[in-house]
Amino acid sequence: MYDMHELKNKVAVIGVGNTKYGNFPQFDEYGLAAQAFKNAVADCGIDKNRIDGLLVSRIPYYARMGEVLGLNPGWTITLPAHGRMSGMGIIEAASAVASGLCTTAVLLYANIGRSRRVNYGGDESPGTWDPWGFTSPGAAHAMAFRRHMEMYGTTTRQLAEVSVAIRHHASLNPDAVMRTPISIDDHENARFITAPLRLLDYCLINDGAVCLILTSAERARDFKKPPVLISGFGGMDTFAPSSIANFDMDFWYPAIDTSGKQARAMAGVSHQDIDALMCYDNFSPTVLFSLEGLGFCGRGESGAFVQDGALKLGGKLPVNTDGGHLSNSYMQGWALNVEAVRQLRGECGARQVPDCEVVQYVQSTPCTRSIIYTRG
């Protein structure tokens, strides 16, 4: 089997870009992605004709995207719309660059879910979450968190710490969609969507697009911004016996544990080295499950771990410093990876993690992935 440690620090992120997030019915996916691409190209100063790899996600047709951008890549890949594709896509693109399938890859994601009133679950995605008709991802996470409450005594006030901390970071991000600070009581007084989850436990569906540009660490020295190295990654898929059973079984613990250990081992870092965590927060309980799976606290101890502002800037482990899915926008993990890059460059202003050198990304989904980024 190929030793993935050989890929440590071989590939770097040289450019990132995104659109504003919100309601933009005048744009389709291609228009939004083109804006994010333009911003990422300007970010690193690359001649777009040097780009010979193209990855798209939640964009209908890769060939049309290449035509819009004026690209003629030698390596292309189209990923489905699911949020789990962000970590998978970055790892695939890094592997393509490292192996020589392309020299410079552009990764594009676009979402028009808000303006087109796209629903996640229900009649629009029958069978996505369970063959017996339980199609609501929010309800599935609610069921999982209820089990966590019963097993470990976790409370909704502890869960509220996640939403409050991430909203605090959004309040420091001038581009975040939801910037008004919230309190624990605000969370507890919000209406239920699917008990025990409330309104402030759910991600924000918006229109927007994200772009990352990857090349080799050696070539990365030629561009405007300091490179951010992809130092480690890991992953594990969890498909059987069914997706809902996976929620009920173990909160993805084996997959998160495996992914985190692989990524840290490849990067040669420990928990103590990680300055910030970018955690896929489609629903607030996912953050608790991720903290336990990654080993930042023991199993069943995440409720106590997050208390008293532990996830805020200045706390034990700053999480989702851009406002994440809960308060910035649900860009299905892609924007969280952009935030990791910006933190390591020191570009985040009021929300900057001091002396940030190592950032971990994790997506706890049926296709769990984790990536370690380090300052180049």
Largest sheet: 9 strands, mixed
Counting structural domains, the number is 2
State the oligomer.
single chain
Span between N and C termini? 28 Å
What's the order of the H and E elements?
EHEHEHEHHHEEEEHHEHHHHEE
β-sheet strand percentage? 15-25%
The outline comes out as globular
Name the average pLDDT: 93
Number of E-state strands: 11
Unreliable stretches: none
Per DSSP, the total helix count is: 12
Structure class = alpha/beta
* CATH level-two architecture of the largest domain: 3-Layer(aba) Sandwich
CATH superfamily of the largest domain: Thiolase/Chalcone synthase
In the CATH scheme, the class of the largest domain would be Alpha Beta
Describe the structure.
This protein is α/β, with parallel strands linked by helices and 376 residues long. The protein has 2 domains: 1-118 and 205-225, 3-Layer(aba) Sandwich (Peroxisomal Thiolase, Chain A, domain 1), CATH 3.40.47; 135-200 and 230-376, Peroxisomal Thiolase, Chain A, domain 1, CATH 3.40.47.10. The protein contains 12 helices and 11 strands. It has helices at 29-44, 62-69, 85-99, 137-152, 156-171, 184-189, 243-250, 253-267, 284-294, 302-305, 324-328, 334-345, and strands at residues 11-18, 53-57, 75-79, 104-112, 192-194, 197-198, 207-216, 228-237, 276-279, 358-363, 367-375. The strands form 2 sheets. The protein has a 9-stranded mixed β-sheet, with helices on both faces. A two-stranded antiparallel sheet has the order 5-6. Helix 8 crosses helix 9 (284-294).
